[in-house]
Specification:
With about 180 residues, the protein is of the alpha+beta class. About 40% of the residues lie in helices and about 15% in strands. The chain has helices at about 10-20, 25-40, 60-70, 120-125, 135-150, 155, 165-170, and strands spanning about 50-55, 80, 100-105, 105-115, 155-160. Helix 1 packs across helix 3 (about 60-70) and helix 2 (about 25-40) crosses helix 3 (about 60-70).
């Protein structure tokens, strides 16, 4: 919900905001947000985006831009990255988590990217020499994005509601501060 009521932000708007560089993670995060926001609804009422805080385990630009375009969390300084989050550590060569926690007024949902959503070749190309396989990597990212947008958020992510341990971990009443 935006300032004056529900506001649907279509993926095409998010892609226009971001561009093409990190299309796979942009689409996966967009789908994850869709599912997580739905999990935070109470009695069918949408969550106001001004109430959303984001803790992301992934520092990439596609992830950040999806969160910003949909929630405005980066602009509102309600966005935090912690690559040490313990869930969905799928990348064998980088310390990052393919998970996030979305909080709205002390209600929170953890979104954990399911194993196998990103194929091994994605991580191989990500770890490789930049430019050497740029065309293949771009095509793979487009393919992953297309596949992600054709699936339900629940097929891509495991959503877990109300686990207070993440807030205890940060020892704060709200994430991102």
């Amino acid at each position: 919900m935006a300032e004056e009521g529900p506001l649907h932000v279509p993926f095409e708007a998010v892609r226009a905001y971001h561009g093409h560089a990190a299309l796979a993670m942009l689409a996966l995060t967009y789908q994850g947000l869709s599912g997580a926001i739905r999990c935070l609804e109470v009695a069918g009422r949408p969550v106001a985006r001004a109430d959303l805080d984001v803790l992301s385990g992934h520092p990439g630009p596609g992830v950040r831009d999806a969160f910003e375009c949909v929630t405005r969390a980066v602009t509102r300084e309600r966005y935090c990255v912690d690559t040490d989050l313990p869930w969905a550590r799928h990348d064998p060569s980088r310390s990052r988590s393919y998970s996030f926690v979305l909080t709205a007024q002390m209600r929170h949902v953890r979104a954990i990217l399911r194993p196998g959503v990103l194929p091994p070749r994605f991580f191989e190309l990500l770890a490789g020499a930049p430019g050497k396989h740029a065309g293949e990597f771009s095509e793979l990212k487009r393919s992953i994005a297309c596949a992600a947008l054709g699936q339900s958020p629940d097929a891509l992510y495991d959503f877990r509601l109300g686990d207070d341990s993440i807030l205890d971990f940060y020892n704060q009443p709200s994430i991102g501060q």
